[in-house]
Amino acid sequence: MDCCVATLLCLGTALYLLVQVIRFIFADADLTLLWMVTFGKTPESTLRGKVVWITGASSGIGKELACQLASLGARLIISGTREVELQKVKNHCLELGSLKEGDVLVLPFDLLERDTHAAKTRVAIQHFGNIDILINNGGRSQRSLFQDTNLEVIQALMDINYLGSVSVTKHVLPHMMQQGTGTLVAVSSVVGLAGAPLVTGYSASKHALQGFFNSLRTELADYPGITISTVCPGPVQSGIVQNAFTEELHRPVAVAGEQSHKMATSRCVRLMLVGIANQVKEMWIGQQPFLLMPYLWQYAPTWAWSITGMLGKRRMENFKAGLDADSSYFTKPKTS
Length: 336
Description:
Helix content: 40-55%
Structural class: alpha/beta
Number of strands: 7
Strand content: 5-15%
Number of helices: 11
Low-confidence stretches: none
Distance between the termini: 68 Å
Largest sheet: 7 strands, parallel
Strand order of the largest sheet: 3-2-1-4-5-6-7
């Protein structure tokens, strides 16, 4: 009898592990976030009517965030440097749901101009009376080898991706502390947890962002109503490559490459909103094999170094051959 019970337990355990492996193979987010997708609160039930400030809202993930939140009935502050594009986003948001003209505030500003952030924050608060959620999404990526990259590029990446988000947070946080509630969201990256070639400055800025918000979370222990969520997406069809820095500040990316292998922006944003609705502290979002990497760096760093080395070598070979850095994982190097 005991033998039968032991056998059943072993079979049950093996079946459970097999199911989890299969789930992971087809997963496009960490298992905690996917659990919330199935069993957690929905964005529709928690985000309607919330005031959400989105930086980098003129394109990519920021634009999609604005559109999906508008369809949920959230009130929006959309920011970026391109006012014309922000106005287009606003018009589209107004077409999607029941929002009125005053429910979407276009608030253009530059993350580099930190001396303007206090005034911009006052405008946002005066318009709606409060800010419930700040999504620090604005930023730029990089496609260049470190030895070829001017230090001005590294400085710009830190100023935009790290200090820009810290500055906006610095001005919004006192308001949230006063009202006792709020959500601070930092859009980081998988390379904010791991490392990859061609993005040394970008990865450094995202590592800094991770460290800052993880530390800030501990400082806010006396404010349980304030949530900090960091989002670590893998490759997404966001258009970020087209606007990436290269070796020099004003040299554009030569080849953006074909983007269909990346996760759809709409899916990435939906997962983000589920995480925000359920107060998930850190979200890993990405299709395989990119989702595997943060798990390896977290639980099996020796394997992670080995796999990163192999993938990184191929990525660099393809980059030097003129192929898009992201799609290089899925294509063969050019031959002479």
